[in-house]
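Marked as duplicate of an earlier ticket. Keeping the data here for the record.
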Amino acid sequence: MEQLNCPWSNLQPSTLQWCERQLCDWIREPANFWSNLFYIIFGIWIVIKARKGHSPHLGLIGIFSILIGLMSGFYHASNSFIGEVLDFSCMFLISTYVLCANLARRYSWSYERLRLVAVIVVVSSIGLLVQYQSIGIELFALQLIAGLILEKQMLKINKVETHFIELVYSLGCLGLAYIAWYLDHEKIVCDPDRHWITGHAIWHFLAAVAIVFIYRFYSYFKIEEKHHV
């Protein structure tokens, strides 16, 4: 039962509940909270690497990773629905990046058109999440699938081998991460009082590693960054 005198108790609770038992404290899920440091650390590394390589668009991946770490940290500290929305909103930034980067490679779309697509995808996804709730992971997956469909089309048309091993590694990490996410969410593998590691914390680590591989994959491509008039 919700303890009304606990921190964050005035906020609407999250629609998703995890294995880790919530504490009556400012950090309600310690393992799920602190594991978000992986997003932040890896994100800072990506930003530094992108800056050295003079690739601003790749730096966005690092910035998005940092935002995920911060917003997911707030989510698991508060166990609030607003935190859940902010967490998934930042995840949508990553999946939308994949979609737009592939649209740029596939159709050579202008910066302005890609920016419009990104805004529409992210805003509509957030709207759907607020309206229907508990569909964040499905929306995230659909956006990634759309990006992968474009990737498959490019491979079929161009028949040019690229550094797909990085993409395979990323998908592998995401697949393992989802397994950990599911087992934790369904409490199939669960020790609620183990506050140093959980299945959801493993999801954070593997998803953060997947973002690194996404960065490495797109670092092999020259994507147009100029504004087109």
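See parent ticket for discussion. The chain has one domain: 30-218.
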